[in-house]
Structures are given as C-alpha cells and as structure tokens.
C-alpha cells in the first residue's frame, strides 16, 4: 500500500471502482477486499448478509467497543452504465487533470476510499472515542442494505453519537433532505379486437385518469411553498415517471402499469400524498372498471420508501460537522440518502457531507476531483483528532 495519503486514496479508489457493483450484482468480492484490507491492520468487521447470500453490509468499529462513537457511512453499489456514452472503461479508474474518472467515483466510492485510506491514522491515534465504518449495499434501489444493518446497530447496548453520510455535497454540511415514496399501479382491463373496442376495458385509458389526477395534485403541491428557504425546490414534488401498456394497435389494452413518486418535505408527507392518491383511485377509477367487468381493477405496490431527514441546525452533530469541515454554513437537498434511516431506525443524529458534486453522480464519465477527496481526508483527520481526545 502506498505510503502517502493521496496515493493511498488513489489506490483504494482504483480497487473499489474495479468491482462492478451495479445493484443487480453481488458486492461480496468488494466486501471481501475491504475485509482483507482491514485485517492487515488487525481490524475485523461484522458482516450483515441479505437473504440471498449475495449481498452484504459491513459494520466496523475502530477504537473502544463499549463507548459511543461516530459513524462514517457509504454505500458500495453503483448505477448502471448501459446506454451511456463513456470514453473509457467505466470500471477502470482514469486520472486526468486532477480528476478521477470511473463509475462510482463521486457516488460514492470516493468517500469510502478516503475513509479506508485514513484507517492507519485511526489505528495509530489510539482512539478514546470509536469511529465506525458503515458500508452498505443497494442504496441506489431504495436504501435496501442499510436497513438490516441499522436494525442490528439499534440492538447494541451502546448507540453511536452521530453519523456522517458521505454522499457528494462538495463537503457542505447537509442537515435535511426530502423523503420519497414510490408506487406502482397495475391496471387490469379486458382485451378485445379494436374493431369492437366498446366491448373491452381499456387499461391505458383508465391509467390516463390516474396520471391526470397525479398531475393535478402535483400542481397543488407546487402552489404550497415551504417557508424553508434552504431547499432549492421549496415544495413537495409529485410525478408519473414510468408507463407501460398495450400490445398492438388493433388490440384493446388489457394491462397498463404506472409508476409514480412523491418527494415530500415533511417527515411522512411522501407516503401521505401517495396513500391519498391510491385511496382516490380505488374510490373513483376502480369501481368504474369493475362496472364494465368484475375481473377488472387496479393493483397497487410500494416500490420505494424512505423518510425525510430534518436534523436541527443547532444539533451537536451539525456543530461538530461544521467544525470538522471548517465552515459555518449548512443546507438542505432534494435528493435522498441513507441519513434519514440512521435517524429513524437507529435514532442516530445524522448529517450528509462528502466529496464531489451531485451533478456528476450517475453520469457518463463520472468523476471526482482529487482536491475534493483531499478535503474529505482533512475532515476525517480532524474527526480522528477529535476522537483521540481523552
């Protein structure tokens, strides 16, 4: 392992990017690699494996095992690269002009690499307050992997003092983000030849009624502006994002699926908004379908859910984050993170702070600037100094 901190970060990030951890694939080789790296310092983590045995989170404690400490948290999965115009292999780290290119460099293997690169300093500091590494899976498809890990953490006799979730914020302290609830509605109609269309039940046309109602309610949400000026979009949002239906031009469509989401400012607002839409559809659309044929109707399925984050601006974890980051400002963002689950599942006060810009996440030729990673390393270095004080 290279001795200089920047070289350690580069090497570790290259290793992490080299593992194809798109969410539909196993992350176990990456987890094993991290475990092997930690073992070289005499550190052993706790694996939390999913029901398939193909995914695992890793909970690591460096320092005292029986005292409350601070969490550095990142996810190992990345979004797909199919259909994106990459100028090089997305799973091979490339450095040009101070930028490190590769899938996940910003979101969010860069942060994980920094945390791992700082492990030697953590060990050498003989921490009085422990530092935990929380490394999860399947964040990109609904913050799936962090939940069982946090349920295990919640059972421990000592609860961490706070958590820093390293999503890309250009090292700005984020104290809040919107929640999200996603729903899939499957409309079951009745197929007929289009020449006798009145004898069928058109699933797409009934789905269109739902889409129109979603749009109408989205307009009402947009008209209710939050007095929280920290959000760039100062209201809850609602939209239809995916629609599938129909088989041929001359067939009355018997199936149509509609996926829609709400991103709510309030802790539970996302679910409240979508629940109200589901109730409306069951009362207004489904009876009309069943009146045409009793086998017709709508099935609703939750496809994603996480609460909003709303950490008080004067909370101790916020004050500490600002001190470690060397800045006094804070903000809120529209995109979701695992931070709200640290707060809601394990009652761990949390903020979001990490290297890189969210604008780079999920893009072709994704990159993170080396300067951002070095700023993040400085943040972790100051956290180590804070935790080394008796």
From TrEMBL:
UniProt cross-references to Gene3D superfamilies, sorted A to Z: 3.30.70.360, Zn peptidases
Domain of life of the source: Bacteria
SUPFAM superfamilies: Bacterial exopeptidase dimerisation domain, Zn-dependent exopeptidases
GO BP terms, alphabetized: L-arginine biosynthetic process
Domain Peptidase M20 dimerisation: 175-285
Coarse class of the protein's main subcellular location: cytoplasm
CDD domains: M20_ArgE (cd03894)
The keyword Amino-acid biosynthesis is annotated on this UniProt entry: yes
An example Gene Ontology molecular-function term: metal ion binding
Compartments (UniProt record): Cytoplasm
Required cofactor(s): Zn(2+)
GO CC annotations on file: cytoplasm
Keywords of the record: Amino-acid biosynthesis, Arginine biosynthesis, Cobalt, Cytoplasm, Hydrolase, Metal-binding, Zinc
Xref: PANTHER family: ACETYLORNITHINE DEACETYLASE, N-ACETYL-L-CITRULLINE DEACETYLASE
Family to which this protein belongs: Belongs to the peptidase M20A family. ArgE subfamily.
Annotated NCBIfam families: AcOrn-deacetyl, PRK07522.1
Name this protein carries in UniProt: Acetylornithine deacetylase
